[in-house]
Amino acid sequence: MYYIGICDDEPIFLKNITEMTEEILDEAGISYDIxxxxxMAALADYMNAPGVTMNLLLLDILMKGQSGxxxxxxxxxxxxxxxxxxxxxxxxxxxxxxxVESVGYLLKPVLKNDLKEALLxxxxxxxxxxxxxxxxxxxxxxxxxxxxxxxxxxxxxDIHMVDGSVQTISIPLNSLISKLPKEQFIQCYRSYIVSLPxxxxxxKYGIELKNxxxxxxxxxxxxxxxxxxxxWVSLT
Length: 236
Fold this sequence. Notes:
Number of helices: 7
Number of strands: 15
Oligomer: single chain
Strand order of the largest sheet: 2-1-3-4-5
Distance between the termini: 27 Å
């Protein structure tokens, strides 16, 4: 599922962009969930709610209250790297869009081909961060940045996600390790792999995650996890 937020305080433009986005994604065969907002405040309230995932934002720049540029800058200062496509009536803010690493800057009235190019470019970047696992019974896919940890029990692998959901597949843990970037994931126990960005603290026998859940760390892996966490922090 590709989660998109669209924010514009002009109802007709909001409706047109939403319908055009739906058409483009339908034509591309991409499953999506689109939420629309008429103010940055409403968008912020939604994004701050527990369990919310947002993979792409389409933001009008010139809005009453907080502008799209100001909102994007606020996101970046807080460490949120969600891709942004700006939509506006002027090129005056193009440099600001570059500074917040936008993936598109479109002028109204938006042409479908221009929007399609920006949307599919953002989606291609999104799926590069996605892992697909296959077993004889099923397949599952997940984004690396949405994983807290993985554990195996009774020959089944559970993938614990940031939003509280758990995906399960029958696959050996060892066959998964090679699919995960070693700078982001590390084995912390015989049957556990943890996402380094999800760690809040680590002590001799446990790891606290950002959802305040605790998972075990063994004496064998303790030093390696500590070192990997320090390396991750230095990278970010």
